[in-house]
Structure formats: C-alpha cells, structure tokens
Amino acid sequence: SQVEHIKVVSLPLPASVIAVYKQWIPNTNFETASNWDTGRVPCARDVVRFWKNKVVSVFVSSPHALTDMYLPLNGEFVLASGAGFTAFDGSWDPGCDSGATVRFAAAEHHTWFDPTLWQAVSHGEVPEANTHIFSVDEERVPCQYDDVIFQPETSFRINIDSSQQVIHLHSISLMGQELSSPEAWDEYLQGPSAPLQFHGNGTLQVTGTRCPDKSGCACGNAPDGHRICASLLRASGSQCPVPTCQNPLQPLGHCCKVCGAIINLDFTPDFDLQKYQDRLLQVLLSQPKYGGVRMAISKVHKAQTFLGVIPRSSTPLIQIVLIDDGAGVQTGTTVEQLAAGIMEDVAQHGEALGISSGKMEVSTSDTPSGQAGSHISSRITAGTIMGLLFGLLLLGGILFLYRKGNLR
Hints:
Blueprint: E1 21-24, E2 47-49, E3 56-60, E4 63-66, E5 68-70, E6 75-79, E7 84-87, E8 101-103, E9 118-121, E10 147-149, E11 158-159, E12 167-169, E13 171-174, E14 177-179, H1 182-189, H2 194-197, E15 198-199, E16 204-206, H3 225-235, E17 260-267, H4 273-285, E18 293-306, E19 310-324, H5 331-353, E20 355-362, H6 374-404
Parallel strand pairs: 1-10, 2-5, 2-8, 3-6, 4-7, 10-13, 11-15, 12-16
Antiparallel strand pairs: 1-9, 13-14, 17-19, 17-20, 18-19
C-alpha cells in the first residue's frame, strides 16, 4: 500500500543494430544473480526485500513464485510476456529447501562516467573485433557524436552527475527502440521510466547529428575527465600502475602514463581521419611484427599557454598513441619502429594525406622524451619554412623597388 509508482510496461520489438555503439554493461534485471546479496536469484521459499527508499527499475523475464516480497516506495517492474509473481503454495521446489531473506542490491553507485561499465559494440551487438584499436580513457565513455545502446530486455539505473550542462549524444536505444531525434528523446524523458533509470544533476540530450568534420571531432568528455579517472583509479586501487619504461608518456584524454609512443599531427582541411586510420591499419599495423601493438587515434585539443604558464587557447591536433601488449625484450623496440614508420610515411606522403607536420615522442628512448623523431618532423616542415622565407624576400624586393620608383 506504500508503493507510489509500480507499473507494467509492454515491450516493443527489438530494432536492428546497424552502427557502432557504446553499450552499457550492468543491469538491474530480476534474473541477474549478481543483483542479489546472496549471489543467486530468489526462489519460492525466499522473502524478497527491496530497499524501501531506493528508487529502482527492474526487468522481469519469467514467472516467479515467492513467499513474500517487500516493494520500494518508488520504482517499476518491467514485465516480459508471461512474466509475473505468484504466492508460494507450499509445494516442493527443487533447489529451494530452506527459505531465506534475499535483498536486491542498490544500483546508485553505477555512474555514466565509469569507463569500465561501457563496451564498444558493432553489428549484431558484439564487441569490436579489431584488436589493434583501443581508446584513451575519456573516449571509452560515450562521446558527443556516439550512439548509446542499452540492451533489449534489460533495466538499469545510472548516475549522470556531470560538470557539463548537457551531455550530447547522437542516439540512445532503449528496449530495442532507437531514439535518434530531439523530439523522440524529449517525449521519452517526459514518461515515467526516465527518472527511474537516470538520476543526478546531468542532462542527456539526443541530437541526431553526426560529426560534421571529416578530420574528426573531439570527444567532448574533457570537462568530466576527473570523474572518468576517479572511477578508473577507484577500480584499480586508487593509483596508476607503475610504468616499466624510462620515460613514460601522458596521452591527452588518458588517466595514467603509458609506455609506448605518441605522435601528434597538425592537419589541413584535406585530412580525413577515417581514411587515415584505415591506411595505418592496412599498410603498417597489418604487418606480422606489429601483431601485439595497439593504437588509439583521434582528434584532441591541446591547451596552449603563454610563457608556459598563462592559458591562451587550445589547438586541435590528431593524437596517435601506440602501446605494445607484448612481454618480450623487443616490446619497446617494436613500438618505436612502428612510430618511426608512421613518421616516415608522413614525411613522404603527408601533403597528399592532408598532414602539415608531425612530432613523435617515444618512452623507450634513452634520450629525453620528445627528441626521437624530431629530424623526421623537421623534414616535413622544411618545405613550408623555405616557402615562407622566399615569400618574405620577394615581398621585400617589391617594396624596395616601389620606394625607389622603379615599380608602379
């Protein structure tokens, strides 16, 4: 009699998944054993208790007989076809000889900005198969142009506290239905389920628009980078693992330093991020010697400062992070060889690829981080510098002739 909001929801047919999504992993399903304090699903002789003041949404996929059940003051049961609850009639139930009190675990601690609670999925809702690609930590959480999917026939509850006023997304799929327009999402938010599934001070907004720039778009999670890193460090004992290399590197958007290489590329309007990633995968990373190397590539914004202290602005660049999962003595050497190969390719084909310059840092080098690859970078920019000098000399000559009266 104390229940304020318990409802039954009919389920739409699942929609086909045709794009790459970031998929939420946890659920609050009745039949998920880890959602109960006993580590098992309640059986007929059990007394089921939900926390009185904990808001919850629970998907129920099958019928259950129970001795008793205490409901929350505010929540919902989403019942699949044929699912429901009946009172235990005292008959023998295999595997449930002695009843117990079974409590549903609270889901308030699941946060949107926890990278460990998301996975990238592709066609058919299976994990991405390309073992060469990984994401820096900020990009493991849905970015502003990403599609988000919550698996059909699952319930959930997420804390969306954020440092941003609005968390932008391309689309959100719930119960097999894709919401890909602002109007469809606003309509869903006005329904009874949304406040039970999402809580916190953040606001999710579906835009229905893709990244408009072929050179890529920044993820947009930088304002919540501290939340992302706090979640990761909490899961790993509140500290980053100790790097095994001499000069560990700190990629932008990543929580901990890494052993490997970082390449920063300046680009022109002709640069195409997807085509360039495909080129690296096909031409370089496909070689057997690079089998253990993983790459993260994306557009990031690097902060610029005046005199190294005063914040001035931010500059967009393409960041390539290379790490090696191997354990042999050649691990660092392999990454350095690949980084040098990428820089050599840029030196030869950078203009055609829309790349104006590049800089390489390698953690395994005995020289200070950042020196390795500088000679290759200088080759890339040498033509530009010579062109500028020639232009200045030409302009000076014209100005001299004009003042002499020899040029009108």
